[in-house]
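Course exercise 7: structure representation. Students receive a sequence record and must write out the corresponding structure in token form. The form below is the worked example handed out in class, using Glycosyltransferase family 4 protein (387 residues). Read each field label carefully; the graders check that inputs and outputs are placed in the correct fields and that the protein name is recorded exactly as given.

STUDENT ID: A-19
EXERCISE PROTEIN: Glycosyltransferase family 4 protein
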Amino acid sequence: MKEILIITNYFPPETGAASNRIFHLAEGLQKHNFTVSVITPLPNYPTGKVFKAYKGCFKCTSKENNISVHRIWIYASNSKNKLLRLIAMLSYSFSLFWFFIWNKIPKTVIIQSPPLLVAFTSVLFLRSKKRKLILNVSDLWPIAGLELGALKKNFSYKLLEKIERFNYKHSNLILGQSNEILNHVTSIFPNKHIFLYRNYPNFEAPKLIQNGSSNGKLKIVYAGLLGVAQGVYKLCNELDYSNIQLHIYGDGAEKQKIEDLIAENRALDIVYHGEVTRQELHKELLNYDITIIPLINRIYGAVPSKIFEYARLGLPMIYFGGGEGENLIKTYSLGWVAKAGDYKHLNTVISKIQVSDLQLKCKKKIQQTSIENFNFNTQLGLLVKKL
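STUDENT ANSWER:
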């Protein structure tokens, strides 16, 4: 059996798209007769604190679904302070370096990026003519940081650009979750080997049901990270609640602001359900008419994994983020699109959606589109041929 190592910042029991993506990749490779091992920090996302079960550990190795998982030390932090976040990334990079010194590393390694510094550490110390490095790029940093307003075009930005290019240059294969990512890579290194690896879900498509509306209102659901990039707090303030009810699931930096808004404005038809497990969430989502996928800014290269997950659940979508994600919604008829950042247009789009547009027939069509076009096992099979 061929050995393969995956280096990632996120892995279960942590929740979220990144954790799910890497877990399914590791599990899928294991089923394709690879001996899979994973290096990841002690679980700390999204709280920025090491989970209770791992507190006091410097490292922890376990066997999970026949996958060897090495959890190593990190100075955990989700602080808005850029210095503390940098220290957190550097601490994980240091732990990786220490791990590389004392452990035998397989000939094939998949490295998750971002974070850029973690990917840089892995590429720097593992590059070898005898080793195949595969860089799995899920977001384009530092470009995304610039578009989110987290970075400015200064010396630090130029340094991150150099790190980004170093990572691409010394990787044998680049996996990108969007065509925009791959176009960016080939604009710098035209001859680089690339592969489109979408974040397709890997769960059994559920049997769909026809749900009833809430007091005649359209039941809209948002589920996911309540972070700055998603802009859910602003969304809550800008929506017209005349004919809709908004339900929210998740956790993140804006959680308290959203809870305070609901408490202080009882007239707003918003229900916050907190955070639930992914399995529980899938069951809950079947009870809603439609979901909304917002981004505060259009981010080049970003394609929310929610698109593929919701399609498999047969859930129609309102996409409010622009870019390649918008094109996917239109191309595969997965729902409705509103102009990124234009809340007036968003409310207009929502006002034209009728509950009759969201009957069981519509949901089954979306689910069938997902099964035919967003197939995890088909995609993985194509990737395996390149490893």
